[in-house]
Design a protein that fits this description.
There is one protein chain. The protein has one domain. It is mostly helical. The protein has four helices and no strands.
């Protein structure tokens, strides 16, 4: 989903007030700016398709990992 810069902060804040756990919220804040459609297009044009795919997959995996670890071990 595309958000303008820092727009995801109030959205995540409203998700947190609705009961979202902090781990997935951190994952959304980490992955959101990197995985917007305009950002992915620019990354693909600058890095090339193969490197952009690797970058995008790493952002997804590491954001999910940080969200999981943070939600289960650090944000109680």
């Amino acid at each position: 989903m595309y958000f303008a810069a820092l727009t995801e902060v109030p959205i995540v804040n409203s998700f947190l007030s609705l009961g979202m756990h902090k781990g997935p919220a951190v994952a959304l804040l980490l992955a959101g700016p990197s995985l917007s459609l305009p950002a992915m297009i620019i990354i693909a044009k600058v890095l090339g398709g193969k490197k952009a795919t690797t970058y995008i997959l790493l952002v997804i995996a590491l954001s999910a990992l940080v969200g999981f670890l943070g939600g289960n071990f650090f944000f109680h």
